Amino acid sequence: MKFDRNSVIGFIILGLLFLGMFWFNSKDQNRFLAEKKIADNIKRVQDSTRRSQDSIARYKNPPQTTPTPILATAADSAGFLQALNGTESTEEVNTDVLRIVFTNKGGQPKSIELKKFKAPGNTNVKLGATDFDKISYNIAAATNRNAGIDSLYFGTAEKAVNTDSTTTITYKLKSAEGREIVHKFVVKPNNYMLDFTITIDGVQQVLGTNTLNLTWQANAVQQQKDIEYERGQSKIGYYYEGGYDNHMAPGGGSKDFKGAVNWVSIKQQFFNYTLVAKNGFSGGNIIWTSPTDTNGIVTQATANMQVALQNNATASIPLGLYYGPNDYQILKQYGNDMEDMVDLGSGIFAFVKYINRWIVIPAFNFFDKFTNNYGIVILLLTLFIRLLISPLTYSSYLSGAKMKVLRPEIEQLKAKHGADQQAMSVDQMKLFREAGVNPLGGCIPALFQIPIFFALYSFFNSAVGLRGQEFLWAHDLSQYDSVFHIPFSIPLYGDHVSLFTITAVITSFLISLYSMSMTPDQGNPVLKYMPYFFPFILLFVFNKLPSGLTWYYTVSNLITLGLQFVIQTYIIDHDKILAKMEVSRKKPKTKSKWAEKMEQMQEQQKQVQQKKGGLPNSSKGR
């Protein structure tokens, strides 16, 4: 097979960047970093867990005899003690997208089902439904007695359906002296955000301070069939001091906030739980752990947030609770940058998110209007993207055609110089310059396409619309397809066979075969066989990726094979190229400073080798 060094370099660079991207997105690499960092994480998680457990213990076992500063201003011993005992009652609210069960214990949501999304067991996705999930804050239940609001029983829910089709659920908790705590929820039709307002009458008596110390606990439960891959895609996000930031969930950790925080969130691969402060939190912290066992918990988080209150007798704290999909368009409508949670490009590849936002998502949504078959939508998206980059594709093929025309002369130079690689390189560069050929013309267009590859990798890992969508043998385009289950796990590969991965690998290999047959041979065995090995590296990289992505690569590769054949056979006229190159040779050439320096360096290296006796006699005698 014939090949071109620069094309090979392009393959290698592409391969390295691919592997770099997957490394940055790998849960294993994020979990097993340097030993010091792991030790620091473990210590931080242990400290954070201890603080969380101490906080929960204080809620469950409040001090009985020792007064605390919070209770110093409590005016009456009766207070809210009667609310410590009661009977739990629930109230259900249904919308087009949600089924919410509220409980009077703590006056808060008990579970939320997403009607349009299915969990692995084919039931509705359920969020905020474990015993760990809760919202709480300490109040003075009576003199020398405090309690967490989640342990108190509110009155029966007051349910009202409003003229704007919203539903209001109101829970009230009254003390013996007439002070009142009200939790009010507004559920909107076709909306995943719940408005949540806490109203406290007698702030100093109830809280003992002008700060509400709110604790929000959330369990992110497994929603995909591969929990390890889902953990690797999960993050803890927040909007802090005017900007969005996040941390990888695997491994655990904590984050302290010393300034204004708009919201905090647990983001799974396709869903998120978010606590929003409409007037902002004044500070706090969030602690998270990522269990490594098989209990079905992806990430567990506890946020301890402060809300600064006005020095008034009554305080109203407007909040929001989001339980829903990581859908860019849905999150964007809230106007608080929650759409940044949708991982359309992050880390060193953050720039590709704009390709997804401005090109890929609009195109995908456009094609979605014409068919309900998402496999066809991906096919149309592939055709659109290939049309978009067609100028780069043609430029690359044209460069390959020019190199093919020069192949006989390159072979003559090889025969002339033999093992003298320095002399070969000098004369080859002269040949390229005389013929008006850019030796990097084949790989530069390919490098410009790399951001598109990275953008699509992020897009298909975040496209919640693909969940549960079947195509051909794939039952869910958001997850890997499996046509055969292996009774054991192969390192780096897994325990299943993905047919779309195999089709992507085979078509990539065919592209390598065709491309290398069109370019001259440089004789380096390492470079010679690298393009053939690279497609099979993808076998291990792609096997756990979403089948929508591997289907895209399969279609894109088939298009590439077809374009290569048509362009090289019917569009590019090799005789015309040769004629233009001959005309270019006759024109006077001016060397660039870069070319002059390269030739000087090569000549110096040649002289050094001659002095050391490293060149053949035929070279020395010239």
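[next item in queue]
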Amino acid sequence: MAKNNDQDQFKKVLSHAKEYGYVFQSSEIYDGLSAVYDYGQNGVELKKNIREYWWQAMTQLNQDIVGIDTAIFMHPTVWKASGHVDAFNDPLIDNKDSKKRYRADVLVEDYCEKHLQKANKEIAKAAKRFGEDFDAKMYAETNPRVMGYMKKATEPTARLAQLLEAEDLEGVKALIEELEIADPDTGSKNWTDVRQFNLMFGTKIGASADTATDLFLRPETAQGIFVNFLNVQKSGRMKIPFGIAQTGKAFRNEIVARQFIFRQREFEQMEMQYFVKPGTELKWFEIWKEKRMAWHRSLGMGDENYRFHDHEKMAHYANAATDIEFDFPFGFKELEGIHSRTDFDLKAHEEHSGKKLQFFDHEDNKSYVPYVLETSIGLDRMFLAVFSNSLVDEKLDGGGERTVLKLPAVLAPVKAAILPLLKKDGLPEIANEIVDELKWSMNVAYEEKDSIGKRYARHDLNGTPYCVTIDHDTKEDHAVTVRDRDTMTQERVAIKDLKSYLESRVSMSEWLRKI
């Protein structure tokens, strides 16, 4: 599949997601609500499977990590302590001609990414020209054109980080003008000043306006973990190091919400906070970088589609931070963040609540506030990464073409389609017996309409990894034909072995072993 800002591919993703019941625009019959989406009958299954694959990898494969589910509504002081009230802002800039609003930092980051892609293309062309003896590193460090692209790919982000750290918004605008960054849609360079915008949604709780309390919809799930640190530690008799995992909805008033479900106002996070002894946090930071990358790679979506991107500008609470970026149809973007948050969060909640949030270490015979390693991934972004990467157009050996949704089998909404060759001769009855046997362990679909070729094509488009055909021979040999979606190869499998055959290829336990 073409990458690097492939708008045609992205349009195909949006169209396919709607046509096959994965993602719909929220309130579409009323012309929709911007940056809010609903998941259809197949989308909800794919989303559930991604969540479960993450959850089991965290809580079942790690004896020192437990789960929690905290409320969306929290005491308003939580967000004062966390820094969200004062510092949860995006730098926004408007184009005076197009009237469109953008995140100033994203404009600079996209500028740098374009030049990085230009450098990579130059290196790739040189590699083809020079063959096996080509030294990519030396070429990148000596070729003037590549060096120029790399300079434009790295220097602006470093300058941007310094400007944002100093809260120099005038300097950010000056940088955009210096780089001659234009409105992506119109090419206009007529920009307003940059200003900060807080992203939290406010709401009220109470029986009347006079007595109502001002609250926020949570902008992240992490704070629910921090305020329950002692509850979990004491009730579970947890010892440092240990982790607390959580999935759930979060809400951000994204003014610049584009790129489909990549950036939404209502979204779902999968976060894990790992509490460690002070002084060991950077060791654990490296461990969790590798653990999380191994989880992503286990899905088989191509190692070349992932990269680490260390932060130039770290959050005020962090002493190390990196992103796992994925190559979406619109380029490499953040998929998961891994942060060493130090002891900022627990100390801040100690200060604002007046309660001690410490761990007594019997080995050292002293109490301390643990440091925290965070892994945080957007479930919706992961959904988009999986879906967009899986949708491919293929040329077939016979000269034809097909479109297929090659979802990782463990995540596919339907694991197998059970297809009687004809609607007669007792074949539907055998097919339904197979459905009744398989439905207890996996999601299967029964279909008898249209020719078998059309049914195969339909399930290729829907992402179903296996099609099981019941034909006239089944009545004699008690076997079925299993067709693999990705290779289109067919294999005869005894009905008594079908369940184990499919489970070995689609079950979560088998896929988790790859991590």
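[queue empty]
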